[in-house]
Each structure stands twice: as C-alpha cells, then as structure tokens.
Write a structure and sequence with these properties.
globular; 51% helix; 2 domains; TIM Barrel; two-stranded antiparallel ribbon; alpha/beta; 8-stranded parallel β-barrel
Amino acid sequence: MRFGIFLAPFHAALTNPTLALERDLDLIQHLDKLGFDEAWIGEHHSAGVEVIASPEVFIAAAAERTRHIKLGTGVTSLPFHHPLILADRTVLLDHLTRGRFMLGCGPGSLPSDAVMMGIEPVTQRPRMEESLNAITRLLAGETVTMKTDWFTLQDARLHILPYSKPCFEIATAAMISPAGPRAAGRFGTSLLSISASSQGGFNALASAWEICEEKAAEYGRSVNRENWRLVAPMHLAETEEKAREQVLYGIHGWVEYFSKVAALPLAPATDDPNDLVDTIVGSGLAVVGTPDQAIEQIERLKKQSGGFGSFLIMAHDWARPEETHKSYELFSQEVMPHFQGSTSSLRRSWDYVTGNRAANMEKAGKAVMNAISMHAQEQAEKNAK
C-alpha cells in the first residue's frame, strides 16, 4: 500500500495566507523525508480557507524542495480551464518534475467559485467529462477538433508530449454519487475517493469499484484497484488522550468551515469542541488517537471497499504545526510498516538472533578463548627463544 496526503488545504479562516502557504511547503518537505509516496494539492478561489488558487504553481515550488514524493493536483477543476492550455501546463510539470507529477480531475467543489465565473453549478460535471475527453486525447498525441458550448478545439495538438511514457497518472475525484466512478471507468483513469470515511462516502465504497469496472468495460477501458485512493482525516499522538487534547486547537474551525461553506458533508451537528471529537471519532469519520487506531481505520476501509492501493490522510490544522508534524512521523514509523511489510524481515532477524543467542554466544566465547590461547602460545614460543 502507498501513502500520502490530500492537501486542500484546510487552514483557519483569516490566518496569514503567506505563512499558511509556507507551512504547506514545509509539510510536504517533511513528508518527503518521512517516505510518504505522494501529496495531492487542491484548487479553490473563494471562502478564504482553501487558499491555493493554482495547484500547478504550488507543485512547481514544492518539486524544487523535494526529491522523491510525487505531486498531484487534488483536484484541478476542469470546467474552469480551457483543456488545451491545461494539458500543456500538465505536460510542462511532468517534464520539470521528471515524472513526479499526477493530474487529479474534478468538476470543482465550491459553488461560489463557479458562480463568480458565471458557470452554472449544474453544468460542472458534464463539462468535466467533456474536458477530460479532450485532455486524455491530447495527452495521447491525437489531433483534436471539438466544439462545445464552452470551449473550442480546432486541429489542436500538443507540441510537447508527456515526459512519462505513455502518460503521467490521471485520477478522477469521487465523493458520494456514482459520477466519479463512472467517469473514471469511462476514461480509464485512477479513482480518488475524497470522502471515504464519511457516512455517505463509506457506504458508497461498497459499490464504487463495481461501477467503475462496469463503465470501463462499456468503453473498452481497463482499471486497476491498485490505482484507487481513499482519503480520510487523522491526527495521531502517543496516547489517545494526548491526541484529543491537541486537536482542540483547531478542530472547531474545521467543522465550522464544512458546516457553512464546503460541499463535502463531513461536519457533525454540534458546537462543543469536546463533543465534536466524540462525534467525529464515534461516526467513523476520523481517527483522533494512536497509530494502532489508525491501522484499525485503514483495515476497516479495506474491508468495506474490497481493497485499494493508496491511503491519503486528509491534511488539516486541527493541531499546532509541530504536533501535526509529529502525527505524520508516528504514522510513518508505525502505520506504514504494518501495511508495507517493511519491518517483517527485521522481526525475523531479531527473532532468529535472540532465539539462538545461547548457542551463538557459546561459539563467540570459544572464539575469544581460542584467540587468547593462540596469543599466549605465541608469546611463550618467543620467550623460549
């Protein structure tokens, strides 16, 4: 299993945006050093919380500060961009990052973004599919002529093809409705389930992959569960009590945003910060606790979904930055090895050595005594001369 984060980002309203963006870059550097596989960066244009307007520009900056972690748009709102220009930008990032770029696609999550551009929210999902149809063909090297009610392509082609062969990974966002799995199946993309642990999103996991496979078969495409990503929020500490205390720093603002602004149905109906934690944890939405509880949550999602390839932590500012960084350290030290098997050989080696300690120490002791005896014999022979 691979691991990463989904960085919308969710910052406290009215916080210093310059410092918030710098902390986001610092976080991705931290994750790169911890061995996380990927980070997905959101696009938003209103409400003052999800403050990254261009995930592509952010990714370019993050790529210069990191070495290994893959970076994706999480997600680019396709109806907001002309498909030729967007495809060109993605190819540029694929080359600049030497293949560390991924394209996440969605219709746009905030209705206020669309309204400011004169886009009727009801048109966003159909437009996303129109755009994705054009983009996938352009990235495949086709010459495309298309005319829709919002964009025109006339003998359009990319003058630079992707660095990744045949193309970098493309993922389609899904929440609760079948629209995401249907689009992923139709275009043969990866699937990115953003609200996997919410009640509605969790229930949808049971049928999401079946829908994706059915649509893929209809269009002659192939899809792979290894490319299915599930997103859920977590905050970890050495004890559950410590984790609960730490998230009181910022969890109320996160819930207020989902209650008053965001389209994702994540927020519980309570205003008391302590009740918020109880409600969020009790509903299965999030883990606020220990690495063992994080493992239980991922196993729960595996069982419900039938299996997936990557788990993404939904990034947030529930705790102070230093506590948030520690949470990711605990995750990399104790949760990731459980699913990746990276410590199993260490355990076997430890068990073998400790189980054979007496016999090995006896042999080592004999070797020491032999060395002492040999040295004494050599000295005696020298003295005899």
